[in-house]
Amino acid sequence: MAYGNLREFVAALEREGELLRIERPLDPHLEIPEVIDRVCKMPGGGKALLFGSPTRGKAPLLANCFGSYRRMAMALSAESIEEPAERIAGLLAKSPPEGLGDKVRTLGELMGLSKALPRHVRTGRCKEVIRQAEDASLADLPILHCWPGDGGPFITLPMVVTAHPETGRRNVGMYRMHVYDECTTGMHWHTHKVGAGHYREHVRRGERMPVAVALGGDPAITYAATAPLPDGIDEFLFAGFLRKEPVPLVRCETCDLEVPADAEYVLEGYVEPGELRIEGPFGDHTGYYSLADEYPVFHITCITSAADPIYPATIVGRPPMEDCYIAKATERLFLPILKMTLPEIVDMNLPLEGIFHNLCIVSIRKTFPLHARKVMNALWGLGQMMFVKMIIVVDEDVNVQDIGEVIWRLGNNTDFARDTLIWEGPVDALDHSGPRPHVGGKIGLDATRKWPSEGHSREWPPDIIMSGEVKARIDAVWSELGIDP
User: Fold this and answer.
1) Which of 25, 353, 397, 425 has its CA 20 to 30 A from that of 191?
2) What confidence category does residue 314 fall into, taking pLDDT thresholds of 50, 70 and 90?
3) For all residues of the chain together, what is the average pLDDT?
4) Active-site residues: which are they?
5) Ordered strands of the 258-260 beta sheet
6) Who contacts 12 (Cβ-Cβ below 8 Å, separation ≥6)?
7) What is the CATH number of the domain that holds 356?
8) pTM (two decimals)
């Protein structure tokens, strides 16, 4: 069941024992982030945190609401993060309809998907308070200064809405926003992102770029802004599919963009072509500070909000952190789509410690020599998978979610002179290890069993496995042995 707004999600978290209210006054400058970081590092991700009395701003602050597998599933209105992945897989697995019965079923499914289309409404929760011009101030928001070396406070869970100036095609992305003063921020558009592409097109035309930033609402909408969707797939449509209800959208007051009607806050404004300002440093999800650099400047013309808003925020840093669970949801949800292109893939693991784009472990059904290398190169050519620095490929019977088993196979099955693929390619803008920005080395490791046709002239030994007959005999008497689990 979809959540009508962020308060409904908070209420659900509280009912399920997943929320901790903190009423002691704490400063958004480092104090609240220190509490969040400690809770994120607890086993299982701790609880969601609602800070009722931040010493800056005029609203309570919600953090770590995505910070466990259970809360991530709740955010997607699901029992587990596998559930929406199974729905996606079911849609992709449909064969073209043949008989009348198949056609009727397919039509019903398509009609169900059409119900995910965004719905336009006149007003909503985000319009209960409207402040324009000099009355529109970020000082009312308890914006976090996350780490001591940060260049200032940062808005960390924004849904940034832009549109292509020619096609009008919308994009919703999550880009951090360095707060310079009460009405201007940085706009951290990496060169590879769709928002940056929209900005470059506005610069080419010499036109001011309208921008709207939504905060809060149904958490499935916030998640959709982080999803690595192909350019042209509407994030609000994807959110509607996840929540099984259309996202209600309302027109902004001062720019021609639409935002979720039930957001807690909406920041409206523009980016001036060619206007750049130093943004950062920022303590990032890599566990290091991303360095200061020039980025576009966002000017706020209007702030609309709920009458009783909750400010949503997160902090990132050395894993495990809240964003790790968002990344694991993406891993599960996009695996069926990945399998459409690479059907030989069995499973994939993007470990938390690999911070999403540093390490990918994938198991495959190997059917021809050097099949693992084909998969490595294909993965590096798919969307944001281009940022992955290390790919380990194992056989289909290996549990990629078991890091111990993967390392065991890697150590035993890999001859590094033969099974290593090294090349240079694009890396995440936050990667500091490469020789120059946006470019770095990559490595692929083939940890599958090797065939003679792959240059392995020796006999490959079998795994050590106990006889099934013996296992069955011991299973029958196991409870009598008095061995504790």
Assistant:
1) 353
2) very high
3) 93
4) 284
5) 119-120, 248-251, 258-260
6) 3, 74
7) 3.40.1670.10
8) 0.91
